[in-house]
Write a structure and sequence with these properties.
alpha/beta, two-stranded parallel ribbon, disordered C terminus
Amino acid sequence: MSASWTRLPDIALLEVFSYLATPQDRWNASLVCKFWSRFFSHPKIWEDVELKSEKSDELTVASIRSFGAHFKRVKVYNSTFFFGVRDILREIAQRCEKVSVFILEPTFRTHEPIYLGIMAELMATFQKLRQLEEVRLPFLQTTGTDSYNPLKSIHANSAHTLSVLDVTEFTRHPRPLSTVLKLTGIKSLSISYQNLTEEILLAMKDHRTLQDLTIVKSQAKPQSGKGTTLPGSIWKDLQYELPDLRVHLVLTEEAPLSCPKGMPVVSYAVADHNNPNSVQLNRLISKLILTYSETLENFVIKADNSFFWDLQLIQLARRCSNIRAVIVDGTVTLESLSEACRHWKKLELLYVKKSKVTSSTVEKGMYQVDKEEPTEELSRILGYPWQPLEDEEFFQKTKRFLSKTLTTAVLRRCPPKVHDKGYRY
């Protein structure tokens, strides 16, 4: 190996290892040479770690035992291998007292025996973690009692430190969410529209700490009740008590959504994954643009169909003058982007996926589109060199933006259900 690689500065090697999230990747990098191997045990790289439980992995468990004392931000990828999840959670509970950020990233939705086991392990884990500041448990199913309610353990041990909570798909039973009422320091709350109640909002108003509220609407329904349509008056009261409150709406499927005018909506994202005919969805988007034209700042499109989103962008440009960020992962023409950007004087961010950008100057599907001239026009309007992004770059930049502003549920499909006989999508 070249001497230049074996004598990289420590700060450069730390930067290299920071891009390796799992213990397996870090172990592989440590095998490069003796100089690199000593960084495998550097405390700094173990502050942020991702743990996968797809199979029984002795290296993952050994890494937690050796370096768990340095863990601060932990992401666990759930899987169908329950015993792997169980072993990881138990080791975290015993050795990772400094963890302040805990994320359970699901890869499936399972049948009752497995998720009850996961609930029990999470409760035991949260009883040991007393410095939690951020907890994200999307797509996690719950039962109708507090017997398997991890939020109860969070309230008992981290009620005063917890500031960020993501329970966007607690849709099996709404009762466990009553624990949210007792969390007095919440600054950012992500919750499903079906389970957002007036009682929760009134509690947030009394605590006077809530700054960001992300409401996710999907086709999922709570097992008991039909969800609550909140009146516009409650939002006026909230704005009076919480003048800095920012509401972010996320629509993950084609589903009806009530739009009270009093909501201070600054972000709207639509993720249309499964509907090739988007007529109803586009009507809803038009209604939302009209309702929140004065406050809307961020607009995100994540569409898997071939529908053109030009009309929605033009309507957004003409109605919403405060737009600061636009992310388009849907079929769109460069001409409509140019026309829309002329109206947005405050635009700071424009991400568009290159594979879905086309032009109206040539017939689509027959010739390769020449994007040079429209791209130059967009660069002139925006005031900096602009280009559509390749798929991987688009995904990474969008994920960073959404994790800070809304929720990564926009990028994530609902995990498949797992039954005794295998997967069902």
